[in-house]
Design the sequence.
């Protein structure tokens, strides 16, 4: 156990955990955040995705000790709120682009990181960015539409 | 808890808890799909003094929009805005027993003249009667509007519901004579109301059972056997007892789990726990499993038998035959299953994403050895389940661990534990034979199929899922039965085992949708070596893959257009209509398949049709699929789906489209890649590298819809129609493009290439 300082969704936290603990468990178990979720624990599905700085990472396979001091962690609930959703989240609401919604951290945050990196990303480039994210309700048609809508609006 | 606080505030507290006593009585509830329901209006609805309406439903949100659609229903029938309706879903202390949320039954159960819809109609009429007395105006001159009853000619003269009944019981039984609001007056139902839960989902703030927290909660993980049939010989508790946060190692027969203070500690503890197991059983070879199915002792069922099929086959000018194969597939929920249980002495509360709150209450009580009346099951949403994923078994895991430690325990399964031990969708081997006369008409149809099952939904028996089995409870005994008795008791096509093109004559009554009178359908069910259970469109999908591929094969044999040939053998006008509507919308090129002058190399394109009347009476759909087949690599890209559907009155057209799309693409994933695999001793498809799903970024077809709305018809299900017809539509399109027939799911490039190589 060791005290570890984290900035999550703009707030500083100190948690006393085994440094090898995957970031996901710190976020969901210690900080009781609801956005990132355990899907596979293997980095294969995306349900645990968070932003560390500008990068979308799989928090289930990222030890909390790998988050560097000064890194800002953003979860899906840190991006926007139900009252004031981020424009990308609003695009998902407008397109009704979910069924169960369990996968949305992976879908939305992966898309956000890709578009922040390359605001001019083409349709195929966005598909490539989402080619390792799973939605088992298979809402990808609406999801890709929502992402394209946001990309167009911010351009 | 939050829910209780809410009820206190709503003014519905008295009503809901006094009703809870009514529901929690000693009567054993029916455990069928739709449960016993409730005859008391107060079991369904409460109007608070705060003007809010609280509705209690036994059909829950599985990600498919039932929360929103049922809220629309209540808002419509009671004439209140949607934002003043609160829907309480599946809580054995609060809601009526509506059995299991499954089988595309939520809409038929709650949107027709029964259950929730009838409760709303009964309440509205009761409120209007009360207002008539209060205002001294005849009922005929009153209307329900905006949470009040108003005089039709002077709407300023009104009395709010809360003044009539707020916080008090109706004390009425459901009135089967109560009239539903006519569909031409609908302003909420039938509109594309936005999902109420979407803002919370999109912003990561929605409550899932996975995010739910109970004070004092600790974390468990299970340790499943390393092989099928392996039994636990010994456990070395000292291998984990010194770890930080250790609470307990729990064993019950072959059930094994660990409990720790924190989740990551539990994950590590489960990995480190030293246990020795026996070797387990030797599994049948995966590669030849479909042939193995034919040779097992089986329980045989004749769904239909005109007793002249053999003669008709002999007399036919031509006989067409084909065998179709389908693998075990899994639910593979994106979130591994999770539950929290708090067992204190002889009482238990289980927070679960189960589809079956009441059935789970009974079976959890059996497992724990406590009275069912002492168990409360509270539904909290989970990841999309598509049937019996691990939601029930993990509820048992949490319950056993909590019982052993006397504290609330949360369990979330590992990906491997989810995938290696869930109740899989059935593998099938399917033989089709049909006789055709000189004019090219089908004169007889013979279908024989083999599949294996074991366990299932745990209603009544915890041994139907892996946790119960490991804890020492067995699934019901399997009793072979050969030969099958003759069909009796009327036509039932609940599993779509009978093709759409036969008359379905049982006892002199034609219950089917087609015209072919000489017909036989024989099913052989054997004992599966893996637990099985309903996976979205269980058996219906497999049977329909065979039937809808085979009708195309017959059409090709007689050089008929596949759409016209279907219509020629159908007599159900609504099934004909969805077929023609999809074809029209797709600008179907009417001609026999395969496409003339197919080139043998490079990219080939084609189109295929498929259709279904789901479960014989629960929703119509047809689909045109368009494909591009790379004949050099065997890769298939589906470029377009056109889906027509008719499920009676449409409650929410956008919700329906979302269902059709999700079903179609899930069907595509299952048709193209999904297959449970195993070696000699254990399941080997245990993660997303070894079980092949489509991804969000995978190339996906454009999807076009034709929604046929029948506002005055009976409400039918729509959650499973589109998935049922995908595999055949795609196989038929591949055949149209290339002349190669693929008869084994999934359609891997290797199988496509083998089919291409086998072309004449």
Sequence:
């Amino acid at each position: 156990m060791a005290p570890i300082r984290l900035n999550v969704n703009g707030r500083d936290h100190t948690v006393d955990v085994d440094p090898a603990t995957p970031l996901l468990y710190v976020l969901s178990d210690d900080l009781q955040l609801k956005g990132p979720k355990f899907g596979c624990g293997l980095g294969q599905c995306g349900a645990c995705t968070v932003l560390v700085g500008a990068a979308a990472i799989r928090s289930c396979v990222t030890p909390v000790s790998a988050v560097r001091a000064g890194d800002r962690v953003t979860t899906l609930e840190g991006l926007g709120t139900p009252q004031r959703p981020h424009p990308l989240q609003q695009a998902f609401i407008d397109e009704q682009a979910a069924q169960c919604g369990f996968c949305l951290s992976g879908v939305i945050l992966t898309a956000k990181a890709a578009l922040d990196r390359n605001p001019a990303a083409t349709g195929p480039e966005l598909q490539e960015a989402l080619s390792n994210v799973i939605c088992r309700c298979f809402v990808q048609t609406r999801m890709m539409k929502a992402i394209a809508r946001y990309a167009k609006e911010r351009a | 808890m939050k829910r209780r606080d809410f009820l206190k505030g709503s003014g519905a507290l008295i009503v809901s808890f006094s009703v809870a006593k009514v529901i929690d009585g000693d009567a054993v509830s029916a455990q069928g799909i739709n449960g016993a329901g409730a005859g008391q209006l107060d079991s369904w609805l409460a109007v608070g003094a705060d003007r809010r309406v609280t509705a209690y439903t036994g059909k829950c949100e599985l990600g498919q929009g039932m929360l929103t659609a049922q809220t629309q229903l209540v808002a419509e029938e009671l004439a209140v805005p949607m934002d003043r309706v609160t829907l309480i879903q599946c809580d054995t202390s609060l809601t009526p027993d509506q059995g299991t949320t499954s089988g595309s039954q939520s809409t038929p159960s709650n949107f027709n003249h029964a259950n929730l819809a009838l409760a709303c109609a009964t309440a509205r009429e009761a409120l209007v009667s009360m207002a008539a007395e209060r205002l001294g105006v005849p009922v005929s001159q009153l209307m329900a509007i905006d949470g009040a009853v108003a005089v039709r000619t002077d709407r300023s003269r009104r009395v709010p519901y809360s003044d009539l009944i707020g916080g008090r019981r109706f004390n009425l039984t459901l009135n089967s004579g109560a009239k539903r609001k006519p569909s031409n007056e609908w302003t909420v139902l039938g509109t594309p109301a936005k999902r109420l839960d979407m803002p919370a989902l999109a912003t990561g703030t929605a409550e899932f059972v996975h995010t739910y927290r109970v004070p004092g909660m600790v974390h468990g993980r299970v340790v499943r056997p390393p092989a099928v049939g392996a039994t636990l010989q010994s456990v070395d508790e000292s291998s984990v007892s010194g770890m930080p946060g250790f609470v307990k190692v729990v064993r019950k027969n072959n059930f094994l789990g660990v409990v720790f203070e924190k989740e990551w500690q539990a994950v590590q503890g489960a990995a480190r726990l030293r246990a020795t197991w026996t070797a387990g059983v030797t599994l049948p070879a995966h590669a030849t499993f479909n042939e193995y199915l034919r040779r097992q002792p089986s329980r045989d069922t004749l769904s239909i038998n005109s007793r002249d099929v053999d003669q008709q086959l002999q007399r036919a000018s031509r006989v067409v035959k084909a065998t179709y194969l389908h693998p075990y597939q899994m639910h593979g929920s994106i979130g591994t299953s999770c539950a929290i249980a708090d067992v204190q002495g002889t009482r238990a509360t289980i927070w679960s994403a189960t589809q079956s709150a009441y059935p789970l209450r009974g079976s959890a009580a059996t497992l724990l050895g406590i009275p069912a009346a002492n168990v409360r099951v509270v539904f909290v949403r989970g990841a999309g389940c598509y049937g019996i994923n691990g939601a029930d078994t993990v509820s048992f895991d949490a319950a056993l661990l909590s019982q052993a430690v006397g504290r609330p325990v949360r369990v979330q399964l590992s990906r491997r534990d989810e995938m290696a031990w869930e109740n899989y969708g059935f593998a099938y081997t399917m033989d089709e034979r049909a006789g055709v006369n000189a004019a090219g008409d089908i004169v007889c149809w013979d279908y024989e199929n083999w599949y294996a099952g074991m366990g299932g939904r745990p209603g009544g028996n915890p041994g139907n899922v892996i946790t119960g089995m490991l804890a020492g409870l067995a699934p019901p005994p399997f009793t072979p039965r050969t030969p099958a008795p003759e069909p009796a008791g009327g036509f039932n096509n609940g599993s779509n085992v009978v093709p759409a093109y036969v008359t379905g004559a049982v006892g002199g009554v034609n219950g089917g949708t087609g015209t072919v009178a000489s017909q036989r359908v024989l099913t052989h069910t054997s004992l599966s070596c893996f637990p099985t259970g309903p996976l979205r469109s269980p058996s219906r999908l497999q049977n329909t893959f065979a039937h809808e591929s085979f009708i195309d094969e017959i059409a090709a044999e007689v050089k008929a257009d596949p759409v016209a040939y279907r219509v020629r053998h159908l007599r159900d006008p609504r099934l004909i209509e969805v077929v023609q509507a999809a074809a029209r919308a797709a600008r179907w090129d009417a001609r026999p398949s395969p496409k003339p002058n197919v080139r043998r190399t490079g990219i080939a394109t084609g189109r295929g049709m498929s259709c279904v009347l789901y479960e014989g009476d629960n929703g119509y759909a047809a689909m045109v699929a368009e494909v591009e087949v790379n004949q050099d690599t065997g890769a298939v890209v589906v470029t377009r789906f056109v889906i027509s559907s008719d499920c009676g009155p449409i409650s929410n057209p956008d919700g329906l489209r979302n269902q059709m799309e999700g079903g179609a693409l899930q069907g595509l994933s299952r048709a193209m890649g999904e297959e449970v695999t195993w070696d000699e001793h254990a399941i080997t498809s245990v993660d997303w590298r070894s079980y092949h799903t489509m991804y969000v970024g995978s190339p996906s077809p454009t999807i076009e819809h034709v929604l046929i709305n029948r506002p005055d018809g009976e409400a039918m299900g729509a959650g499973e129609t589109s998935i049922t017809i995908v595999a055949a539509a795609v196989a038929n399109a591949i055949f149209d493009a290339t002349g190669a027939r693929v008869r084994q799911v999934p359609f891997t490039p290797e199988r496509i290439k083998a089919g291409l190589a086998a072309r004449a």
Remarks:
- Chain A has a mean pLDDT of 97.
